[in-house]
Amino acid sequence: MPGRLPERDRPWVMRTYAGHSSAAATNSLFRRNLAKGQTGLSVAFDLPTQTGYDPDHELASGEVGRVGVPVSHLGDMRALFEGIPLAEMNTSMTINAPAMWLLGLYGTVAAEQGAELSRCAGTTQNDIIKEYLSRGTYIFPPAASLRLTADVIAYTLREMPRWNPVNICSYHLQEAGATPVQEVGFALATAVAVLDTVRDSGQVPAERMGDVVQRISFFVNAGVRFVEEIAKMRAFGALWDEITRDRYGVENPKQRRFRYGVQVNSLGLTEAQPENNIQRIVLEMLGVTLSRDARARALQLPAWNEALGLPRPWDQQWSLRMQQVLAYESDLLEYPDLFAGSHVMTALVDDIVAGARVELEKVLEMGGVVTAVETGYLKSALVASLADRRRRMESGSDVVVGVNRFTETEPSPLTAAGAEAIEQVDPAVEEAATDGVRRWRADRDAAAVEEALAKLRADAATTANLMAATLECVRAGVTTGEWAGALRQVYGEYRAPTGLAGAAGAAGDATLAGVRERVVATARELGSGRLRLLVGKPGLDGHSNGAEQIAVRARDAGFEVVYQGIRLTAGQIVAAAVEEDVDLVGLSVLSGSHLAAVPAVLDGLRAAGRGDLPVVVGGIIPAADAEALRTAGVARVFTPKDFALTGIIDELVTVIREANALD
Q: Per the database record, which ranges form the B12-binding domain (predicted)?
């Protein structure tokens, strides 16, 4: 037939982002998904693993096994992939600050299976820059983190040439508010920083930079505006080709090809009328598959109920089947690029390319992406863009079906089962992981462990590639927390800018004036200059977008806001609340650890003699858990359905008035 390809294209790699509870439970889930036709593995690690803590660390409390699988040592990695031949598998690991460590564990298990490392294929995400801007699982300062990334790239170039050592990740930039232009510009600025670091490290000869470039992959977000998303991906490819040719002298066009995988937009899914999430996911999938010249190499889809809690295996299966229907039932893979020669698409692409080039040049003129992170420029830009997006949604100019328009609904049979509609993590998981890591430490050669850690610390103080010392630590039985702890001693632990300074909130919001009047009046009645709000992020949850937007809107309403950023213990939050003499504590928890993190803060306030201080909570919190929190003493619980920020701030004033017995 005219216009068809001579041979049907192969489908993209189909993955399901998976991991929970324990290595053994996740291994069972992997096997089931592979039996259903999944063609690659995508490993989700829990927050302690991602931030370099063992399960028995204070900050890990309530977080173990919740948003992924805990991997504390070589034994856990063996259990995770037991019976799964790694030489035949394409494995993506969403891990950043400790990427070198997890790759060392993975490679060691592969070698134990008899696999040749040169045959192992997969990806370590390993993009640390976006962690400072949006996701929050950084550990070390930017320069030290980029050094670890460069070391992994140099190592894999020699030992694991089929491995993608870094996955430049614009996914979370979009979630944090980035426009398509910012997403492309900021992600490419990160890629330039990585490649410059590799080039300048002296570990890779200039003539091999093409080999480095061809193993750099990207991980992007696809939103529901799928025509714009197609243009974005074509723009990404055009600029990547230009940069790698002109800046790094890569002459082979195959090495310059833009290679990317996708997770479509999870934070765009809604708690209200969650059945609408199915069509959102399908449309977002089309944005990265319709255009053959810019088609994703790998795709993983969220489940319809991710705004409610942890998806069940059946929910993940449904998302996998969406991909399979598109790839195998439709005729999409039988045709050349559908948009070649399109005047509309060409104009859209040219517009994004021009804007992204301006953003990239601005960052490079500042001295590069590390400077742009450390000065707070990138974070402030994202906070401001997200505030603009929130404003459009609240005003109704951006329609979200079932949330700010067409809100009338029949009861959903999908959620009729209540808590049974999501996966529940057994609290015993954390106790088992804690006991397991303590047994592991007791059974190993302590002298070998200390020798390996001493070698790691010594090498970290030089320019030596740290992969060799890391592999020694793996074989000696070092734990995730010990590996990261040794490097913390050398590099320190970083606190990223919050991006709140100068961010504009709700200009033009007519309802904000009334809230400002209530804030001023309440402060006057309490005899204080201004109402003071502490916004706290307990535990290891680094998704701070919501907390930052609440902080911006509260400040615009006249509150004095105390916000110290992410990753705080209950004790630190309580101490800040007492020292700053705040009127209200607002806790943000999106990792599912609310039933552990929030009571710890409540208990701490009572012990400090401030049990009268009202506490509110926001996050992805099932109805039954919300009721438990209210019973424990929480004044209000806010979930994603509470999208009107000014209304939330107004309710915070009401909470303060109630707590102080004001009429």
A: 530-659
